Amino acid sequence: MTSPSVLAPKSSAGERASAFVVKWGFVAVTLALILFFLITEPNFRTVDNIFGMLKFIAPTAIAGLGVMLAMTVGGIDLSVGASAGFAVSIAAWTMVIANQVGGVAVTVVLICGLLIGALNAFLIVVARIPDLLATLTTMFVIVGLKLIIVDGKSISSQMTLSNGTTAPGKFTADFLWLDRGSIGPVPVPVIIFLVITVLLWFLLERTRWGRALFAVGTNSEAARLSGIRVQWYRTAAYMGCGLLASIAGLLLAARIGQGDVSAGNSLLLDAVAVALVGVSVLGIGRPNAWGTALGAVLIAVMVTGFTMLGLPYYAQDFGKGIVLLIALLFSFTFSRRRTVVTAGSTTSAS
Amino acid sequence: MTSASSAPIEGHDVRVVSLVGVSVAYGSNVVLTDVSLDFRAGEITALLGANGAGKSTLIKALSGANSRYSGEILVGGSVASLGSPVQARQLGISAVHQKVADGIVPGLSVAENLTLDDLAHASRHPLRNRRAALADARAALSTLGLDWPDSVLDQDADRLAISDAQLLVLARALRSTPQLLILDEPTSALTAAEAERLFAVLRSLREQGLSIVYVSHRFGEIEALADRVVVLRDGIVQSNAVRPFEWNEILHDMLGRATDLDHDRGETHRGSGVVATLDGIRLLPESEPVDLDIKAGEVLGILGLIGAGKTEIAELLGGLATPIAGSLTLQGEPYAPKRPRDAITAGVVLVPEDRQKQGILPGWSVLRNITLPFLSESSVFGLVRRRTERSRAETVIQTLSVVASGPDASIDDLSGGNQQKVVVGRWLSADPKLAILDEPFRGVDIAARREIGARLAALAADGAAAVVLSSDVDEIFEVADRIVVLVGGSVELDRYADEVDRSTVIGAFLGQSHPSGPRKDPA
């Protein structure tokens, strides 16, 4: 039953060219940028620098993968930055104030991440608050909760408590290994980043659960009529996002080595940007793991390169903004395909 | 023009708006063909037609909502360009659309909603003041003889009862003192008493010389109200008649004549075992309970207009709704699906009414559209087996002759008929015990319709039950072995297709749907 001539109107050369640009444009931009830095900056090409860049971007990438997961069900999560910040303070509090080992801190943080995700899911799925507003509210609530728990202060080893005594615990070595350790030449954060990317890619592209997540995001009513438990999948996506955000927070905490109360504040915008860039990469037109990872790498390359060129930090935000703009142009303006991500506007479809 | 026996105003044969050879096409799909109509002052013209007949397309062209028509629309005798609703209003054409809620801006007060059009005129009231708005609102309401207190005018329009909201949008439409008022199913949300109130208003507007286009499915209302009935079918004006109305003729014109009926549909099969039953099911809140047996080995065609209870049957069996009263059985066992998943597990599949909203996944491949309900069957430990998926998709594509470049083609690139074949094929590939198809032929060409019909016959021959719900007599005669006519939530007729003729079926259709109309036996 093949009669393609009936269906596919002959595409003109212009259309083919624009399809090519949509598909490969982003990869080309990344490669061109890398090439540019390779030529102009000798330090750029060292192995240390490559792993350094990946390590630097790992928390952003992992939080971005969380946002990407929320996007698969047609939603968005604006609380990832706050969740990561919460994780930083909770990890510090567990080790320094409650005097627990790193393993306990990690467990507590991961459970908190799942709970934050569950709260988002409850607000969106049960209370039917639009995702954008629900997660914005959660962001405020957990930032505030964090400040209450830590009395508005950054928690560091051997800090003086309000009763005059010295804090009993410290950031343990096993916890710090999350940032400083490496397996072979590969730093631990890079391994975590890559493992999560591969797992998410596998989940979304190879398993039926991934297919169901996308079905919910594409047409939740058709998914429901196909026997898919729509609410269950939406809940799972938000909880997964919360978990990933808290993992990002763990890596940040291990990097900083203290419970910096402002940690995670800048993570949200980067994470959302990375996920949106991921949609446009390779012209896929829907959230995907490798695209998100590539988006993160692009931003890492840019930030590193800019730093080496001696550009001020505020130029980085400008650069990121331009990258995001180009990505969105690819996704929405130049692409003939329907772009699935409609952040924040699909909740009424339930 | 033949003079109407009950022409409301003598000598008022003024053509307010005329359509001359108006056609509308969406791409290659012609939805309105060469329509020529006159709308006269002081006359209520009822516009009738089944779903997809072109009524809303006609209204859109008239009210300026779709300027991409060919032909001419004359207003007051000269050619008008109706580029936008605002332009149409300036020319004296006002429309009230079917969904009242769409015409109300929640969060704004009743008075602000009444004077909403002023917001479009930057010059008129750059600063809105409450007192001016109230005065304007009162003036608008007075055209309907309404006198709402300030407390009502100040409240959020969202809190108005639906019938009052209907009056609000009507009053607003009349503010621009139109010469032609278009009402699209204005009574669909009203009770009988509220509708009577509306009719009184419309009659007095007619006395004042307003020309009214009235779209409705309710013959009783048209009999009570209209001076002229225009019937559309397949985008073509089938008839244009004045009183007294010949209802049988009108229904024939609406639903199609028995000309294209004689293709070989084979013999009528009679089912054997009962697959599912409806026991004392109340389809509509105020309707009588219905008992119905659905049998294996036959295609049951359920015929009914909008609001007759067709979709309710589909939703009950498909697990989208729970019965108001009564119960269901499936293969002798009580059957109470809470969600579509339960129905699918029990072997009941539903091809939903709205293909775009409920059926397809836009942007997905044909293959993935087909396999969505069967993900657990085609995966091992959660891992999707591509070969299993592909073989299911290829089977569906072959059995229904889906025209696509292959299983990996995007569903977006398929025609409507082929998309529908994909959705139907998806569900029939589940080997269901009971397949329910709600309006499966809407927007589907004849070839696709035949193929789907043949597939249903094959399904029934294999011992399953198939139910097709439709508002089209031809479709039902074409595919059904047994015909059930549903009127107002009750079964009017239940016969095998070779036992009834078309006019009996249409007669049953007519039976109670227009209580105030003539009740002649069809010839």
Provide an overview of this structure:
The complex is a heterodimer of chains A (350) and B (523). Helix content of chain A is 71%, strand content 1%. Chain A is mostly helical and 350 residues long. Mean pLDDT of chain A is 87; it is low at 1-10 and 340-350. Chain B contains 18 helices and 22 strands. Chain B has helices spanning 55-62, 85-90, 110-114, 130-142, 150-154, 162-175, 192-207, 219-225, 247-255, 310-318, 340-345, 355-359, 366-371, 386-399, 416-428, 446-461, 473-479, 502-511, and strands at residues 15-26, 29-40, 44-48, 70-75, 78-80, 93-96, 180-184, 211-215, 228-233, 236-242, 274-282, 289-295, 299-303, 327-330, 333-334, 348-351, 379-380, 383-384, 434-438, 465-470, 482-487, 490-496. In chain B, the strands form five sheets. A six-stranded mixed β-sheet of chain B has the order 6-7-8-3-9-10, sandwiched between helices. Chain B has a six-stranded mixed β-sheet with strand order 16-19-20-13-21-22, sandwiched between helices. In chain B, strand 9 and strand 10 (236-242) form a beta hairpin. The longest helix of chain B has 16 residues, at 192-207. The model of chain B is unreliable at 1-11, 259-264 and 512-523 (pLDDT under 50). At the A-B interface, helix 1, helix 9 and helix 10 of A face helix 11, helix 12 and strand 18 of B.
Q: Output the strand order for the largest sheet of chain B.
A: 6-7-8-3-9-10
Q: Total strand count of chain B, please?
A: 22
**Principal-axes shape call of chain B:** globular
Strand order, largest beta sheet of chain A: 1-2
The largest contact between protein chains, plus residue counts on each side, is:
A-B, 30 and 40 residues
Rg measurement of chain B, Å: 25 Å
Proportion in helices of chain B: 25-40%
Biggest pleated sheet of chain B: 6 strands, mixed
Profile the largest sheet of chain A: 2 strands, antiparallel
Beta-strand content bin of chain A: under 5%
Overall shape of chain A: it is globular
What is the number of helical segments of chain B per DSSP (H or I, 4+ residues)? 18
What is the H/E order of chain A? HHHHHHHEEHHHHHHH
Mean pLDDT of chain B: 84
- Stretches of chain B where pLDDT is under 50 for at least 5 consecutive residues are 1-11, 259-264, 512-523
Q: Percent helix among the residues of chain A?
A: over 70%
Radius of gyration of chain A: 21 Å
Note the beta-strand portion of chain B: 15-25%
- Taking pLDDT < 50 over at least 5 consecutive residues as the criterion, the unreliable ranges of chain A are 1-10, 340-350
Mean pLDDT of chain A: 87
